[in-house]
Amino acid sequence: MSNVRVLVSDKLAEAGLDALREAPGVELEFRPGMSEDELCDVIGDYDGLIIRSGTQVTPRVVDAADKLRVIGRAGIGVDNVDIPAASRRGIVVMNTPTGNSVTTAEHALALLAALARKIPQAVGSMRTGKWEKSKFQGREIAYKTLGIIGLGNIGRIVADRAQ
After folding, report:
1. What pLDDT sits at residue 133?
2. What DSSP line would sit under 63-121, residue for residue?
3. Using CA atoms in the order 56, 60, 62, 67, what is the torsion angle rounded to 10 degrees?
4. CA–CA distance from 19 to each of 13, 23, 55, 139 (Å)?
């Protein structure tokens, strides 16, 4: 059986690239930042394409993808992939729906804490050379009720971390 040729067309974590490089039967090429024309010129040689949000997989790219069997989106959304065009060609499109969930939930909590403690306003004040400590004391968030709109994957993680 011949190797599977995989093109990574957006930046990925080095650990992810290393895992692909070490996978048996995978021949990896890492070429971030290609234009649509450049991608169309090379995509016909690959069995798999791994993207993030930078690569646009247009109908033109799909039409040029003679051997392509799978498009993997390292991230949640697939709005940069023409799903109907890929489906017509029998190309599987997959994503990592929980890949950034913990990061996103923790970021939401960090922003919540920053706003409750008036950190952005205090930073802005300090940048003007002022020290208005009493003006930016903010509020404690302990023993407060947190309302979460949407209890999908990220909302559930926020709720869990906030307890």
Report:
1. 87
2. HH-SS--EEEESSS--TTB-HHHHHHTT-EEEE-TTTTHHHHHHHHHHHHHHHHTTHHH
3. -120
4. 10, 6, 21, 45
CB count in 10 Å sphere of residue 58: 16
Report the amino acid identity of residue 57. Answer: V
What the block records as the tokens of 40 is 């169309």
Separation of alpha carbons 79 and 51, rounded Å: 12
Distance CA 48, CA 45 (A): 9
**Token pair 């040689």 is at which residue?**
45
Token readout for 63 is 């039409």
Task: Give the pLDDT confidence of 138-162 residue by residue, as tens digits.
Answer: 999 999 999 999 989 999 999 999 9
Intra-chain end-to-end CA distance of the chain, in Å: 52
Residues of the chain with pLDDT below 50 are none
Whether residue 102 contacts residue 76, with contact meaning beta carbons closer than 8 Å, is answered with no
| pLDDT score recorded for residue 1 | 60
Phi, psi of 95 (to 5 degrees): -135, -175
Encoding tokens for residue 86? 């890929």
Reported pTM: 0.75
